[in-house]
Amino acid sequence: MIVFGVVLLIAGAVVAIAFGGDAGGWLLPVGLMAAGLGIVVAGGVARLRRSPVRAAVRAHRAGAGGSPLARLRAVPAMLGSTARGRNPQLPRYQLLLWLIAVVYLVSPIDFIPEFLPLLGIGDDIGVGSWLLTSLYAESGNYLARQEERTEIEPGEAH
What we know:
By secondary structure, the protein is mainly alpha-helical. The chain is 78% helix and 0% strand. The chain is built from six helices and no strands. The chain has helices at residues 2-19, 27-49, 52-64, 68-83, 92-106, 119-157. Helix 3 (52-64) packs across helix 6 (119-157) and helix 5 packs antiparallel against helix 6 (119-157).
């Protein structure tokens, strides 16, 4: 993620140096550099927030989550239980973020217009990859919690 941000920063600087204010003004290079800086900062903050303990918990949950097909099948149940408030490990605002990502992907309005070669589709690829990886990880966590519940409940009934 940080590498993509640095690439956008460099692309903005190259466009600014190569074309200056002659080719469409400063909107494109400033926009590229702002997007790149935002991605670099977001990636740095995300990297700082990760701790070894959190990484170990995520690795354990991801390993116990099941196959990709099982995770795909679990997505509707996960979304439904979260929307009804029955999934306390996943906050409801996450559903809103996923919905915004889907709307952004389907809408014709983009942060970076599609007519720009390679850059225009880059924002869609970024949003789409975040959406898919986030859904994949959370569905694995959901399956792991379901497995834990089924292991605990029979022991409590005795």
